Amino acid sequence: MAIESLYNLIPAYGQDLVRNMTVLLEETILTEQQRWGMFLSGAHAIGVGEVIRQIEAAAPLSAEAVTAAKAASAIMGMNNVYYRALHLMHNREYADLRSGLRMNILMNPGVDKVDFELWCLGVSAINGCGLCLDSHEKVLRSHGVTAEQVQAALRIAATVNAISAVVRAENHYK
């Protein structure tokens, strides 16, 4: 499996992360595209080049799905900052104003809407935007996505975040 080159970047103290990723890649609660797209969108959200390259090389995703995973990371990178700020600010006046931010990708992401929403949810978890998490979870649940499937996306986001942190930290020693 091509993902083993990523595993080789993780030292002994991070082997729980390797095991978690292995388990998550083998679970069938999400489709293969949903799983790999979540790993890829999460890696892009965090921005550790080596992790992005290894996941993208291993991911059995179509070109459209790769682009959509990257787009989920990009659009949530913007939205998570904006909507997290609105959520944290005490002055509610800003919540009533039009954001004026372009978000056309949300209407036609190039993959199934549920897949894209899962990736947006995971990236929102990585970026810490509670308002976006609630919004995407509500959309997912309205499309019949189960709590277990939402949890699987969150577990992937948490795992790719931790793997990226370890690789980033270890690269400081090189």
UniProtKB/TrEMBL annotation:
User: Ranges for the Carboxymuconolactone decarboxylase-like domain?
Assistant: 93-169
* Keyword annotations of the record: Antioxidant, Disulfide bond, Oxidoreductase, Peroxidase, Redox-active center
A GO term for molecular function = disulfide oxidoreductase activity
Q: What is the disulfide pattern of this chain?
A: 129-132
Question: What EC numbers are recorded for this enzyme?
Answer: 1.11.1.28
Q: Which SUPFAM superfamilies match?
A: AhpD-like
Record: active site: 129 (proton donor), 132 (cysteine sulfenic acid (-soh) intermediate)
GO BP terms in the entry: cell redox homeostasis; response to oxidative stress
Q: Name one Pfam family in it.
A: CMD
Superkingdom of origin: Bacteria
Catalytic activity, as annotated: N(6)-[(R)-dihydrolipoyl]-L-lysyl-[lipoyl-carrier protein] + a hydroperoxide = N(6)-[(R)-lipoyl]-L-lysyl-[lipoyl-carrier protein] + an alcohol + H2O
Output the InterPro entries linked to this UniProt entry.
AhpD, AhpD-like, AhpD_core, CMD-like
- What function does the entry list? Antioxidant protein with alkyl hydroperoxidase activity. Required for the reduction of the AhpC active site cysteine residues and for the regeneration of the AhpC enzyme activity.
Q: Return the similarity comment.
A: Belongs to the AhpD family.
* Protein name as it appears in the record: Alkyl hydroperoxide reductase AhpD
